[in-house]
């Protein structure tokens, strides 16, 4: 009995360690956490048109990039920035011309008063200002550009609290730990909040969110179908209602020649 | 091997945080563990489980609830703000407060184990000699539990050094105030500065290794030796 068990146990462990065999139909999508709610809104319609289920894994774009660069088995990568898909492309980790912009993030200012003028409010604000970390998060980088444009970046250094990403910045404000800060318009829309300013888009570089089909994708056609669906006019109209911007007409290869 | 000024600052801040947390937890943990070891009530088990909770709760979740606790929207946050002379969120004080909760089990558990092992016997003997309980704790029990104290302090210190999730939620990554090594390290990785990340990680690991080795040695040296007992082995081992 004991001997049989001693054989059975390793066999069980091995069986548990084997990857769950996803049917050869499921589409695995790695999506930046901030875009997941919007994606979940538009997926059901895609599901009605295509029989196969879509399996979402969300996390920070940086972490997902790491995993995909190390050949994690994803069929499609929706990043919250442009930089990481570009990097994957440079490293030869994506299929041909799959890099495309699928959404445009809009920067919003969460603010307590509705009547004041933004510039004045920022100038005289005495307390903490929350933003996503400019070094790590696209929305943080845009917030930095806004502050620099207003000539406040250096001046307000000691008042800035850096959240790890836009989601966490929202949490810091939502929990009442700060009253003023930079968030994504999509977060405010999703929460049904109205106490925010949409910052003028010429105050910061466009927050382009790009997608790529990783080289290891097992279902590239299906991934491309989802990419096309996300860029379709109907979904783009939906995304605008959810707090995203209008895609630029020429959304690819602004720097002319494309990488590999 | 270049380490930036910001990294040094983060390292120094981390050491300060871990040191202060260990000191505070020692002051809190000794009476707490002693009280628990003396206590015969059924409630004791409930309290012991409560003390263990920070081990179970994912750090980011703990951080999330601290964020709510610190919020000026609610009474506890307002009260804490008055008590500490300012909001705890985005401040070094707040990190110390959080670390004390986060590392509590690492201080209390080893002490509890030691006090349970010797406590009754020694305090009874001391009581028979007419020594008051607090004096017995100070003069008899603590010296007898030296090895456990070294273990508890080393574990607490090391655990706080690597604290990440909690700080991520309540810190705000302010250089010199809340940007500790773990945060700086994560930022290096996120911004793909892998060289800088490796150097900082190496320093942190080297520091921790040296610290734990010293603690082991101290525990060994300080372990009570009697003619009929083998020296107690310190329990510095698993890191949280």
Automatic annotation (TrEMBL), chain A:
Signal peptide range: 1-22
Keywords: Metal-binding, Signal
SUPFAM superfamilies the UniProt entry points to: Periplasmic binding protein-like II (SSF53850)
InterPro entries given in the database record: AvModA-like_subst-bd (IPR044084), ModA (IPR005950), ModA/WtpA (IPR050682)
Family: Belongs to the bacterial solute-binding protein ModA family.
NCBIfam families per record: modA
Annotated protein name in UniProt: Molybdate ABC transporter substrate-binding protein
Origin species: Microbulbifer spongiae
Automatic annotation (TrEMBL), chain B:
Localization in the cell: Cell inner membrane; Cell membrane
Membrane-spanning segments: 12-34, 46-68, 88-115, 164-186, 198-218
Membrane topology value: Multi-pass membrane protein
Keyword Cell membrane attached: yes
Key words of the record: Cell inner membrane, Cell membrane, Membrane, Molybdenum, Transmembrane, Transmembrane helix, Transport
Gene3D superfamilies the UniProt entry points to: MetI-like
One Pfam family of this chain: BPD_transp_1
Superkingdom of this protein's organism: Bacteria
Annotated ABC transmembrane type-1 domain residues: 11-215
Functional note: Part of the binding-protein-dependent transport system for molybdenum; probably responsible for the translocation of the substrate across the membrane.
Family: Belongs to the binding-protein-dependent transport system permease family. CysTW subfamily.
Protein name from the UniProt record: Molybdenum transport system permease
Species of provenance: Microbulbifer spongiae
Species classification: Bacteria, Pseudomonadati, Pseudomonadota, Gammaproteobacteria, Cellvibrionales
Gene field: modB
């Amino acid at each position: 009995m004991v001997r049989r068990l001693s054989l059975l146990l390793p066999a069980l462990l091995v069986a548990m360690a084997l990857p769950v065999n996803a049917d050869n139909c499921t589409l695995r999508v790695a999506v930046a956490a901030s875009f997941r709610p919007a994606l979940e809104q538009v997926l059901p319609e895609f599901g009605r048109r295509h029989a196969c289920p879509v399996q979402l894994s969300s996390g920070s774009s940086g972490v997902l990039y790491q995993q995909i660069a190390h050949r994690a088995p994803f069929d499609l990568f929706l990043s919250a920035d442009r930089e990481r898909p570009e990097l994957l492309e440079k490293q030869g980790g994506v299929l041909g011309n799959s890099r495309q912009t699928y959404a445009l993030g809009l920067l919003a200012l969460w603010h307590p008063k509705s009547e004041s003028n933004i510039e004045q409010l920022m100038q005289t604000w005495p307390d903490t200002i929350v933003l996503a970390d400019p070094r790590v998060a696209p929305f943080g980088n845009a917030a930095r550009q806004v502050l620099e444009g207003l000539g406040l970046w250096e001046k307000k250094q000691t008042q800035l609290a850096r959240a790890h990403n836009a989601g966490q910045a929202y949490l810091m404000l939502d929990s009442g730990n700060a009253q003023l800060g930079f968030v994504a318009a999509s977060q405010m829309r999703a929460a049904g909040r109205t106490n925010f300013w949409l910052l003028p888009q010429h105050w910061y570089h466009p927050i382009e969110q790009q997608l790529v089909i990783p080289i290891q994708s097992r279902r590239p056609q299906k991934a491309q179908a989802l990419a096309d669906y996300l860029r379709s006019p109907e979904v783009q109209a939906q995304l605008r209602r959810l707090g995203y911007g209008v895609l630029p007409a020429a959304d690819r290869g602004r720097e002319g020649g494309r990488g590999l | 091997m270049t380490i930036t000024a910001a990294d040094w600052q983060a390292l120094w801040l981390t050491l300060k945080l871990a040191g202060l947390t260990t000191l505070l937890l020692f002051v809190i943990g000794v009476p707490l563990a002693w009280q628990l070891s003396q206590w015969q009530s059924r409630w004791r088990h409930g309290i012991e489980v409560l003390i263990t909770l920070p081990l179970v709760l994912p750090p980011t979740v703990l951080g999330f609830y601290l964020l709510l606790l610190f919020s000026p929207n609610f009474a506890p946050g307002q009260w804490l703000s008055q008590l500490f002379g300012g909001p705890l969120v985005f401040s070094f004080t707040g990190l110390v407060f959080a670390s004390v909760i986060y590392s509590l089990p690492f201080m209390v558990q080893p002490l509890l184990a030691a006090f349970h092992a010797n406590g009754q016997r020694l305090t009874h003997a001391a009581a028979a000699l007419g020594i008051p309980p607090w004096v017995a704790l100070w003069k008899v029990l603590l010296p007898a539990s030296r090895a456990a104290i070294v273990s508890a302090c080393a574990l607490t210190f090391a655990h706080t050094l690597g604290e990440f999730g909690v700080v991520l939620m309540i810190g705000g990554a302010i250089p010199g105030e809340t940007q500790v090594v773990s945060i700086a390290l994560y930022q290096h990785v996120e911004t793909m500065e892998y060289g800088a990340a490796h150097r900082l990680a190496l320093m942190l690991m080297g520091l921790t290794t040296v610290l734990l080795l010293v603690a082991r040695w101290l525990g060994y040296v300080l372990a009570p030796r009697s003619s009929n007992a083998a020296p107690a082995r310190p329990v510095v081992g698993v890191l949280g």
